[in-house]
Amino acid sequence: MEVGNGSKMSREMFDLANRGMSDEVLNCVMPYIHDPKDRDAVSLVCRRWYDLDALTRKHITIALCYTTSPDRLRRRFPHLESLKLKGKPRAAMFNLIMEDWGGYVTPWVKEIAEYFDCLKVLHFRRMIVKDSDLELLAKARGRVLLVLKLDKCSGFSTDGLLHVGRSCRNLRTLFLEESQIVDKDGEWLHELALNNTVLETLNFYMTELAKVRFEDLELIAKNCQSLISMKISDYEVLDLVGFFRAASALEEFAGGSFSEEPDRYSAVTFPRRLCRLGLNYMGKNEMPIVFPFASLLKKLDLLYCLLKTEDHCLLIQRCPNLEVLEARDVIGDRGLEVLAQSCKKLRRLRIERGDDDQEMEDEEGVVSQRGLMALARGCLEIEYVAIYVSDITNASLECVGTHSKNLCDFRLVLLEREERITDLPLDNGVRALLMGCQKLRRFALYLRSGGLTDMGLRYIGQYSPNVRWMLLGYVGESDAGLLEFSRGCPSLQKLEMRGCCFSERALAVAAMQLTSLRYLWVQGYRTSETGRDLLVMARPFWNIELIPSRGVIIDSQDGESVVIEHPAHILAYYSLAGPRTDFPSTVIPLDPAAFLTL
C-alpha cells in the first residue's frame, strides 16, 4: 500500500501499523502529528487510523470553500478547534473577479453555530460575510471563540461587529485587515473595549473604519494588559499618545497618519517592546521618531510611507535586526544594496509596485537585477521574496539560485516601464534558480511577451519537484511548451496563469498530466465559442467554471471613466460536494452532459 507522497513520519507510522500498534500507543502518538500532509497520509493506512484522525484532528484549512460542504466537514471532523476557510480565487485581490462571484459564509456559519462545539479559532478569507452571520456566530459561539479573522472579506458593517464586541468576551484576536466594511459608527470598538480584558491582537488595518474613538483604543490598552499587536486605519498619531503610554506590552503597531507640523511629533513615545512597525504617510520629516528604537525593529512596513530612495537608505541602515521588510519599488536598487549590507537576518522581503504618478516616486526608485543580486549575496537567510522589477537578467536569477538556499517562496513581476529589457528570454536564469533553491514550495513568474520560451517552460516543469503553488504570466510560445511543462511538477496542487497563448485543449491536457493538480485558474487564453475542448479534463469530482470576457469601467489617469476588456477566465477544481448552486449570471458552469446532444 502506498501512503501519500511518503514523508518520513508517514512511513514510520505505516511501519508501525504493519507491526500492529495498540490503540493505547496510537492514542499517545496521534496528538503529536500536526502536519496536514502527515495526517492525511496516516488516515489512509487503515480504517482504525482514519477514524482516530477524524476524532483528534484539531485544525483544517479549506483552500476553496466549494471543494466540500459544511455538513461533510462536520461528519468527517466533528471535534475541530480551528478552521480556515477561503472563498474567492486569489485573483479577487487584484479586482479580476466580480464581487458577487460567490464565497458566502452563511451555510458554514449555520453549521458551525449548531454543531461545532469545540471550535475556538475561525478564519474566513476572501469571503462574503453578512451582519446576520456575525450575529449568529456571536450568539452561538461567542463565549468560546478565541480568534476571529475576517481577512479581505466583504458584505458586512459595523452593526455585525457590534455583536462580536458584545458577545465574544474571550477573544484574543480580532482580525479585519483589508476587509470592505460599511462604517456606520464606532460603537463596536466601544463595546469591545468595555467587555474584553484578554485581547492580544486587534487589526483593522487598511479598512475604512474611521469612526473609532481614540479613547476606546486607550481603554483597550488599559484593560487588556496582554495586548501585543494593534493595527488600525488612518488615525492621527498625536491622538495616540495615551494609547502608546498604556500599551506597555505592545510589540506591533501599524497604521496612523501624520497631518500636523513635524516638530509636534517629538512628543510621541512608543512602547519599549515595540519591534514590528508600519506608519502610514510618514515622510522624511517625521522619520526621526523611529530612530531611537530602530535597532530593535524586526519588521518594518513602509508600503504607505512618503519616503524617497535616500530616506529608505537612511532608515534601513539603522535596523540591523530587521527580519521582515515591506516597501514599494521607490526603495530602488540602492535601497536594496543598503538592505543587503545592513540587515543580515532578513528572512522576508516584499517590494510592491509604486504608483507612477504619486509624489513618492523618485528618479532612483527603480528595482532591477542590480538590487536583486545584492539581496541574494547579502541576505543569505532569506526565505520569501516577492518583488516587482523594471529590468532583469539571467545572471541575477542565477545569483539567487547560487546564494538563496533557504528560499521557500519566490515571486517576480517584470513591469512594463522599460521599453527594452537587458536580457530576455530568462530560460537559463529560471533553470539555475530552480535548481539552486531546493526548498522552493511557491513560485510566481509574471513576465512579458518573449520573457520565457517553450524551453523555459520545460525547465520549470523539470526543476520544480517540490513546488505546490505556481503563478505564471505571459510565458511560453506555444501549446507544446505548456505540455512539456505539465509532464513535470509532480507536487503542483494549485496553478494560476494569465496572459498566455495556450489553447483550451492544451490547458485541459496539461491539467490531466499534472498528477497532483487540485485547482486551476486561467485568465487570458485562446478561447473557443463553446469551450468544448475543455471537456478533455472532465472527470468525476472535477468542477469547471467559465467567466466570459467582459468590459470593466475604471478611472483613467485624467479622471475620466474608461472601459477596459477583461479576458475570459477558467476555474477548475476538485470538489467532493459536486457543482455549486450559487452561480451568479456572470459564471457559466461547464456541464459535460450538455455537449452530448451537440
Could you describe the 3D structure shown?
The chain is of the alpha/beta class. 29% of the residues lie in helices and 19% in strands. It is built from 19 helices and 25 strands. The protein has a 21-stranded mixed beta sheet, with no helix packed on it. Strands 5-7 form a two-stranded parallel sheet. A two-stranded antiparallel ribbon has the order 22-23. Helix 16 packs parallel to helix 17 (454-462). The longest helix is centred in the first third of the chain and has 12 residues, at 8-19. The radius of gyration is 25 Å and the shape is globular. Residues 1-6 have low confidence and may be disordered.
Q: Any key phrases for this structure?
A:
19% strand, 598 residues, two-stranded parallel sheet, alpha/beta
Brief overview:
The chain is an alpha/beta fold and 598 residues long.
Uncertain segments are 1-6
Mean pLDDT: 91
Class by alpha and beta content = alpha/beta
Put simply, the count of helices is 19
Share of β-strand residues: 15-25%
Radius of gyration of CA atoms, rounded to a whole number = 25 Å
Q: What gap, in angstroms, lies between the N and C termini?
A: 43 Å
Helix fraction? 25-40%
Main sheet, how many strands, which sense, barrel?
Answer: 21 strands, mixed
Number of strands: 25
Q: What spatial form do the alpha-carbon principal axes imply?
A: globular
